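Entry 12.
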Amino acid sequence: MKRTSPWRFVPALLILIPYGTAHAINGTPTWFQSVVAAPSPSKQITAPSLAFDHYGTPSVSWSDVTNSGGSNTIFRSTTNGLGFWSQHTVAAGADVGILTALSFDRAERPTVAWIDRNGAVSTQFDDAINQTLSPMAGNAPPAMSISHDLTGTLRGAFASTAAGTVYDINGAVGSHASASIGTFANVSNILDLRLTTDHSGRRHVIARVSLTTNNQGVLVASEPVDGGAWASTLLATADSVGGVAIATSPVDGKIALAYTTLAAGTNLSKLVYAKSTGTILQSTDVQSSNTAIFEDIDLAFDLSDGRPAIAYERKMLAPFAQEIRFAYENASSVWQTSLIDGTASLDNPFGLPRRPSLAFDDYGTSWPAVAYTDANGSLNVAFDPPAPEPATALLAALVAPVLLRRRRNSATA
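Predicted 3D structure (tokens):
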């Protein structure tokens, strides 16, 4: 029997109704909000990391933090089957966990990684086994990501305090280690970075960097087939780079990436998507504006059809507004956009990372969810579950009201 998503807030009778297999980002998304947690008094929530296990249950890692010198708590929050969130305390203490990352292995066991304010990099495996990695060289501001490759091995990366230097995170079954990936030339600071692994097992990194030339850039690097130094290139430069993301296509195993730039002179901001053909990157401007700034982003693929999607921040200048939005490629390879929340909180007042996190359900029909911080500082997850088939929708309407509404056939640009 098809497992029912824990997001469906419907009577037990409706849970037994089988849903159709509509792709998650066909038509216009219909977003529903779930509040994961509110910050404690005098504290702030840092950038969340959202992931699904392979049964379709979402989890979020995040930190409840004070300004420098205070007591912080790292949590992993999971839905409990009724749409509510249960909280597992990962770690607590002075200045711990100013940035976290989350991933599940093939046996549904979570790994949470985090960077403390003093640069210590740690992991927790399966809610029980904690490790502090060596070297302890996390950058400030912190930059880190983790995921699991096809073999179930943990793959991640974090920026070092040494200018332009990146270390990996690797291992399996709770035995995690770290080693230098390399040092990239002409980089004074790494502001953000993400790592993905292609289907052949090679790792690829994208980084948002400050350059020695005083502007910012988008740096990409790939692990060589036969070992040795990683090949790297500066993909783009700008007065400001707002966000970067990288992901592996579930269909062909090729690499895709996204980033945002701002040209101060013309106030032109862009959200760019690029996909590798195996030999070159083919790029497209998903959004561009002179009246809005595109900032932090996350990139993921709809696992049901292999189409890319991007969660992104948009800061409107006049009238001022801070938004979380969603861009997705439709069946005609045309990018569409959707508003998730028009009253988000994009900047952490303590100067710590705060960005949206996008993930797709990995069970049955793939549907998207986005974790982000709302205007009041609370941690929210917005989700767009699969719409029922017409006959199912009619039957559901006769039995009881439901929260799931069938998407409109049209899409907004």
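Annotation: Residues 21-387 form a domain with the Neuraminidase fold (CATH 2.120.10.10). The helical segments are 12-15, 390-399.
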